Amino acid sequence: MQTRITTLLLFFLSASFAFAQTGTIRGFIKDAKTKDALIGATVLVEGTQIGAAADVDGSFSLAAVPSGSHKIIISFVSYKTKEIPNVRVESGNITVIDTEMDEEGTALQEVVVRGARATNTEVAVISEIKQLKPIAVGISAQQIQKSQDRDAAAAIRRVPGVSIVDNRFVMIRGLGSRYNAVLINDVITPSSEVDTRSFSFDLVPSNIIDRMIVYKSGSAESPGDFAGGIIKIYTKRRPDQNFFDAAATIGYRQNTTLQSAQTHTRSGANFLGLWGKDQMRSSAFPTRSADFNVLNNQERASFARLFPNSWALKDINIAPDMRLAFNMGKRFNIGNIDVSNITNVNYSLTNQLADVDLKLYQNGVLANEIFEKYTDSNYQRQSRIGVLHNWTLRFNPDFTMEWKTLFNQLGNTETVVRNGQKVVDGYDALSYSQRFENRTIVTTQVSGDHKFGELTKLNWITGFGYTGRWEPDWKRIRFQRLTDAVGADGQPAPFQAVTPNDPTANEVGHFFSKLGERVLTLSVNGEHAFGNPSDREPNRIRFGVYGERKDRDYEAHFYGYNNIGNASAILTQGIGSIFNPENINGQTGGLTMRDGTRDLDSYQGINNYTAAYLSGDLNFGRKAVMTIGFRGEYNNQQLHSVVVNQKRELVNNKIFIPLPSINFTYKVSEKQNFRLAFSSTLNRPEFRELAPYAYYDFNLQADIRGNTTLKTAKIQNLDAKWEFYPTANELISVTGFYKHFKNPIESFLLPVGGNGLAYTFINAGTAQNYGVEMEIRKGFANSVSPFIQNLTLVGNVSVIKSTVNLGDFVQGPDLGGEIQNYDLTGLTDKKRPMANQSPYLINAGVYYADPVSGWQWNLLYNVFGQRIFAVGNQNNPTVYETPRNVIDLNISKKIKQNLEIRLGIQDILNQPVRFAQDFNRDGKIGKDVTSLSANADQDIRKFRRGSYFTLTAAYTFGRRTVIP
């Protein structure tokens, strides 16, 4: 495999030289008097459409300039246009122009600027980060395209200090997703999950992203609910001109594509993430379980027959993955109004098959004494529809309005067939899970940007967001038989379905859940500069208000089958026939149904959040600036349940927290900064973490329940950063950070008997998190070799340490939901690393882009250190996720400006995803997982996702010219 990849790569590299028929013009533009860089000055090659704008240091680069002599025209508002004739360009070489411009001697009349500064290039993102007052890092659409990342989750793991959990949740500086704030176009996104405070980054396709900026330090303008970072996703805004693009991708996953698998049938348009009405719980069912369970066996059986018998599995051959994307940009004038629209439509249908080894242990004196062991055949088919639709109306240079809408819908059909043994009990086991999940997120915003002269700016944003998550009819059933049992025919005895008298979530039955969350937002932000607006560093004051109203409705229902008398003749039938209508008759020897839903399994949440801030800059000469800010946040969090039309208040938390911040920047030179930052932030519990409702996780084999006593955590943050920008697209930085938590919210494993697992959320006493991040981005523009000129090296390393001090007692619910104090002495470790915290993160990449031939390729590497996946106690050791080395290769070629072919190979090494139990409790997972010694650790879950190959063709209809 490696030989084939090496041969292919060498072929592409050698081919890149064969197409060199043009050259490059690079240089710098400065003010002739002050020698300052003229940011935004326009450089054009006369007689062509080749042009560029000067970057933050006055540099520019014109690629793919035809060989020969050309006239270069340089223009800038309020400066005399400059013409440079007879600029010689040689094939494959670089021509350098360093020039200066003189100011116009006369006053300007009316000047209308139609263009906008590019924000989606690597240079633009570096320039933006350089000028920000808080400490930040980022990634551009240009780099995302080079990496061929499919969604925001894959793209953001290229950012320093960022790692991904479950291919969709972001961790920053080793802190779980609950400690990160996510904004889309400067509006806080609602959580996309039921059980945790998380935003699922796989919902955002990569080709609608303009850039992503990750703020590592706080500021008065930013929301206060974070500790790891604030991730701002900016979607594409305005096209440079009219265009229409289309792209199609076919994907092949090792050990999945063209393999056989078992799946279940769902009615409705599953390929669009939708489902049929027959999968919804009939409105005829009584609302409360108490009203349902008082009915007699026959009456309850009549309700059970309303569920379709769709349990039978079918065999399929898995087709290749498919992705389609359509992008359209339109720009026109209505009178004096500059109107533009950009629309992106994405569709994908993908597959994942994995054989998962799953083990539970007795956790006695010896390691690897198996309690239960299984092999899961897990097949998932995922569909996604994404739509971005943005309008921009520029009325004049002082007033712009935008309307941005983002819609994403994801459907996941999952079938798990679990084979194994309950070793200690002496049973063979066979279980099935048939699940369909739909997630929908919609955000729409209207915003306005106003300028009042050269000194004052004002912008406002009003938005509406909706998150929906449905699980229509999650079906689960478990069969078992004595391991050595033999039937009358001498063959192994048949499996028999387990049907307990009282329904439980891990036994046979139907589970339904529905979540709807609506968010209304309004923010107003202003900025006023003092002094001469032409000053390079004028003093500024910033102010604003933010308001948000969030409403959530969640309801869940669970129904379990139980037998009446001896029903073995039915329970030993196959999964496709057990639930035939004639078997669900409510008679002796037949089946009926009970409702296992509790009143607290549904809840309503309301959150009113308001904030106001004020910050200002203090400039100490031309080199040092300090930004001092104060933000105040008031939050009212309420949680209710409704029982027999009576609303019961579960939570009513009202809290005001002041959040000061200081950001200091010292300019060592024009290319070098030193930054210091301090901020107070917080972390609020989420509705699900508060709700006293138990949810069964089939894959984790554990109950998860909320805690109504959770308090808001308070965090103090310190950051120091040195950053060096050798050129406009190069960067070297080193950042150190320290965080102190009071009442951090952590996962807690309840002390229950047997091998059952039940988790809740608790407030620990204190915690601390500290570390160092290093980032480098290196280009070779001045190299004499054309090949090396086109190379860029990118790398970042984070080393992190964290400690949680739980204290002597924690407060949480028991299995009955009653709140109690747990004495931790002899129960669990009182000190440990924070859950989901990685001790190190490494990202590295080599990028090659030849603008002459159109060849691009990159080789990317990513790894994270072992992190706590599930917190343990004395009876059940802590489970860690172990490191995986991931290498990706991407190659692309542009053909005649209109067509681009891309080849991607993700996860070349295909190392196993491994979750292991720290049996010897030394805080690390060893390689010895088969020994019975007391020093061995234990594999809990292990599987391989498979290397992934994609081939993409992207075509632009008509000629698309980028205008700076």
From TrEMBL:
Start and end of every TonB-dependent receptor-like beta-barrel domain? Answer: 538-906
Q: Name one Pfam family in it.
A: CarbopepD_reg_2
Question: Which ranges carry the TonB-dependent receptor plug domain?
Answer: 135-229
Reply yes or no: does the keyword Signal apply.
yes
| Family indicated by similarity | Belongs to the TonB-dependent receptor family.
Its GO CC terms are:
cell outer membrane
Q: What's the source species for this entry?
A: Dyadobacter luteus
User: What keywords were assigned to this record?
Assistant: Cell outer membrane, Membrane, Receptor, Signal, TonB box
Compartments where found: Cell outer membrane
This protein's name = TonB-dependent receptor
Q: Which domain of life is it from?
A: Bacteria
* InterPro entries documented for this protein: Beta-barrel_TonB (IPR000531), Beta-barrel_TonB_sf (IPR036942), CarboxyPept-like_regulatory (IPR008969), Plug_dom (IPR012910), Plug_dom_sf (IPR037066)
Signal peptide positions on this chain: 1-20
